[in-house]
Amino acid sequence: MEILIWIGAAVSLVGLVGILYCASLVAKAKGAGLDDAALRERLRSIVALNLGALFVSAIGLMLVVLGVTFR
Fold first, then answer.
1. Cα(4)–Cα(39) distance, rounded to whole angstroms?
2. Contact yes or no for 7/65 (Cβ under 8 A)
3. What is the Cα–Cα distance from 32 to 21, expressed in whole angstroms?
4. 3-state secondary structure of 71
5. Per-residue burial over 36-57, b = 16 or more CB atoms within 10 Å of its CB, e = otherwise
6. Mean pLDDT of residues grouped by 10 in the chain (71 residues)?
7. At what angle do helices 36-70 and 2-31 cross, to 10 degrees?
8. Which H/E stretch holds residue 59?
9. What is the DSSP secondary structure assignment for residue 55, as one 8-state letter?
10. Residue 42 has what pLDDT?
């Protein structure tokens, strides 16, 4: 089950990269000087991406826990 741990770590790392990417998108959106409505619209789309990245990271951590449990 060691392979499950490594797969889970890789999936979790992909999720973490996605979360960091979302943070950089938010920083760019805030620095763009948009009006309130445009900023809200851009952040709304980023939130959806952020939730997806968080889900992927959580699945990866679950795989790691399963791998450690079955080891």
1. 40
2. no
3. 16
4. coil
5. eeeeeebbeebeeebeebeebb
6. 94 97 95 89 94 97 96 82
7. 170
8. helix 36-70
9. H
10. 92
